[in-house]
Amino acid sequence: MDFGELRNDDKFTKTVNNFSSALDKIEKSLSTAVDLKDFDELSTQEKVKLDNYLAYAINSLYWMHVKLRGDDPNEVANIYQNHLINYFVYQLQHGIKNELSRVRQTIVRDKQIYEHNTIRPVIDKAAAGRFIKHGLHVRFDEDGERLTENSSNNEMNKDTVITSSTIP
After folding, report:
1. Which residues, including other chains, have CB under 8 Å from residue 66's CB and lie 6 or more apart?
2. Least crowded by CB within 10 Å, which of 3, 87, 105, 164?
3. How far is residue 46's CA from residue 32's CA, in Å, rounded to a whole number?
4. Contact (CB, 8 A) for 63 and 100
5. 3-class DSSP string for the chain
6. Where does the protein end up (predicted)?
7. How many whole angstroms separate alpha carbon 11 and alpha carbon 74?
8. Beta bridge partners of 146
9. Distant-in-sequence contacts of 98-101, Cβ < 8 A, 24+ apart
10. What would the pLDDT profile of 122-150 be if each residue is shown by its tens digit?
11. Rounded to whole angstroms, how far apart are CA atoms 163 and 139?
């Protein structure tokens, strides 16, 4: 690129070169998406993601165009409220912020719909461990006979008999 008198301004040349390379990457990505030949063979989810991508990319490019022209894309059309036709023309030119917001909402909604399909119940390992520990633990006496809950308490009490003489 020929920058003329601005070629000595490193910050400006670096910014313009970065912008140019970013536009090249966007162009390559968009051309790949637009030239997709087997769109009909895509699943519904893939079609929605592609459409959202294209809508967001095109609106973002338009937002960049408005910024490069020196206009403020966030501006509200207060000036043209008295002139209805000019107001609509202005909204078409600068309604990009609302359009980008709308596209973002569709992307969020898409994530909610399709991530809901992948949400699986999560097992609480600590609770499962407690269930297993208390529910499946079976005690046996010295003879190998199964002890019930009442008999295990009696067996445990035989070993630890507290008498009044042992209490201080």
Report:
1. 72, 73, 93, 94, 96
2. 164
3. 15
4. yes
5. CCCHHHHHCHHHHHHHHHHHHHHHHHHHHHHHHHCCCCHHHCCHHHHHHHHHHHHHHHHHHHHHHHHHHCCCCCCCCCCCCCCHHHHHHHHHHHCHHHHHHHHHHHHHHHHHHHHHCCCCCCCCHHHHHHHHHHHHCCCECCCCCECCHHHHHHHHHHHCCCCCCCCC
6. Cytoplasm; Nucleus, Nucleolus; Nucleus
7. 26
8. 140
9. 99/59, 100/56, 100/59, 100/60, 100/63
10. 788 898 888 777 766 666 777 777 776 66
11. 27
Query: For 90-120, how does the pLDDT look when each residue is reduced to its tens digit (9 = 90+)?
Result: 555 557 778 888 899 999 998 888 887 677 7
Looking at per-residue pLDDT, the higher value among 106 and 75 belongs to: 106
> How far apart (Å, rounded) are the C-alpha atoms in residues 142 and 158?
13
